[in-house]
Amino acid sequence: MIAWLRIAFAAIVILAVSIVLMPLQLLALRFDWRLRRRLPRAWHRIVCYCLGIRVHVTGRLEDRRPLMLCSNHSSWLDIMVLSAVADVAFIAKIEVSDWPIFGTLAKLQKSVFVVREERRKTGHQANEIAGRMADGEIVVLFPEGTTSDGNRLLEVKSSLFGAAAMAVPYSPTGTVVVQPVAVAYTRVHGIAMGRYHRPLAAWPGDIELLPHLLDIVRCGAIDAEVSFGEAVDYRAETSRKEVSATIALRIRNLLNSRLRGREIS
């Protein structure tokens, strides 16, 4: 009974907030107001509260621009959590645009949808990402290219860092800042989650969305830890593979330190 009351409360609040904010966001997108960058953050903070997602931040978001954040990816919750922490836009695969609910939300946040299989479109997509970063937007990349089980970082694809390279000529300093970020789900109802229970938060993709969403709301108390790491300066002469390897190592260390509850050098 309590679980269903929690679900009803979350649904009513999220619906009410969406009715107020979404038309305003559509106007902001239509006229390209800077407000379009800030409204999603307010919406996601409220949604995280309603879902019982308690967000904790360690480290500091880089002040320098252009800025690309590179994060591990285990669930649709990552998008909610990162959007609640900073005014960001996401790089997403084109299939996401057709997803129910999340496709609409991604469009409202002005995500960049990429078609990785069509090389002829890669240059245009990279230019769009580069232009957005050059305009001061923070772009989030999930370099694994898919979701994991939340216990580890999968192989990072260096090709996805091409957008950072494309943005270098647009930067007044000739540098694009690439910052690693780890999102870890560590506790449920204040108790350490552990490997066995982490699938509660993780969404590998073979689980139906609605049941997973209902499980999250029923739970009502998940701790998410967002850790910002040391950034890498990407310049014209920078090796994409070296940056990819460095960022992957730093994300992995950040993630492991949060999951294990101790710092890893």
What secondary-structure arrangement, pairings included, does this model have?
Blueprint: H1 2-30, H2 35-51, E1 53-58, E2 67-71, H3 77-85, E3 88-93, H4 102-108, E4 112-114, H5 119-134, E5 138-141, H6 162-167, E6 176-188, E7 191-192, H7 194-197, H8 209-219, E8 222-228, E9 232-234, H9 240-260
Parallel strand pairs: 1-8, 2-5, 2-6, 3-4, 3-5
Antiparallel strand pairs: 6-7, 6-8, 6-9
Helix pairs in contact: 1-2, 1-8, 2-3
What's this, in brief?
This is 1-acyl-sn-glycerol-3-phosphate acyltransferase. With 265 residues, the chain is an alpha/beta fold.
Helical run tally = 9
Distance between the ends: 46 Å
Structural shape: globular
| SSE string, helices as H and strands as E | HHEEHEHEHEHEEHHEEH
Main sheet characteristics: 9 strands, mixed
Secondary-structure-derived class: alpha/beta
The level of helicity is 40-55%
Tell me what portion of residues adopts beta-strand conformation: 15-25%
Alpha-carbon Rg, integer: 18 Å
What number is the mean pLDDT? 87
Q: Total number of β-strand segments?
A: 9
Parts with pLDDT < 50 across at least 5 consecutive residues: none
If you had to describe this structure to a student in words, what would you say it looks like?
It is a single chain. By secondary structure, the protein is α/β, with parallel strands linked by helices. It has nine helices and nine strands. Strands 1, 2, 3, 4, 5, 6, 7, 8 and 9 form a nine-stranded mixed sheet that branches. β3 (88-93), α4 (102-108) and β4 form a beta-alpha-beta unit. α1 runs antiparallel to α2 and α2 (35-51) crosses α3 (77-85). Pfam families: Acyltransferase.
